[in-house]
Amino acid sequence: GEAARSLGKTRSPKAFDALKKNLRKESFNETIRIGVLDGYAELRDAQATPIIIEWTRYGKPHAAREAATKALGKLGEGKPEVTDHLTHLLDDPWFRVRLEASVALGELLDPKAVGALERLVERELDGRVKRRAREALRKIQAGRVASDEFRRLREDVDKLREENRQLKERLDRIEKPRTRK
Question: Can you give the three-state secondary structure of 73-130, one letter per residue?
Fold first, then answer.
């Protein structure tokens, strides 16, 4: 499991196939599969997304499903289909999958997930899942605020650049008549 995780961190082009081969190996408490799924998350290869989504499906071993759900939080940035799948997993019968889906949605900072997370907080009985969903909501809200602040800062910098350019042009016009005398 640790070898697979480390292999993913190398981001080698050969790592994908090696991880795929090890995904079939049985082990106690799904240790190898969890390492492979974590390795895929570290690899950050888009072609791993369908494989990981398949391992979140009901009927797979619970521990592997949890690890796959967690991996989607690292792989799903900018992928609406991953956000949609994670919001679907908020209704999963296994509470740890719901918990990991909440955390993953918080990592993705996708505002589309806010409604689903709010519904989860309202109906969830397990306090641990509720807490993670609330934390994800706070992260998404903070991410929105940060992106708004970043956008305002960028606009301010652009405005300052434009003012600086205009001042330089004025200075050039003022200095040109002096140099001709």
Answer: HHHCCCCHHHHHHHHHHCCCCCHHHHHHHHHHHHHHCCHHHHHHHHHHHHHCCCHHHH
Q: What is the pLDDT of residues 119-168, one digit of tens each?
A: 999 999 999 999 999 999 999 988 766 667 777 888 888 899 999 999 99
47 pLDDT more than 90: yes
pLDDT digits (tens, 9 = 90+) for 78-96: 899 999 999 999 999 999 9
In angstroms, the CA 93 to CA 85 distance is 15
What's the CA gap between 27 and 12, in Å, rounded? 25
Q: Around Cβ 49, how many Cβ atoms within 10 Å?
A: 18
Longest Cα separation, the chain? 90
Q: What is the 3-state secondary structure (H, E, C) of 120-168?
A: HHHHCCCHHHHHHHHHHHHHHHHHHHHHHHHHHHHHHHHHHHHHHHHHH
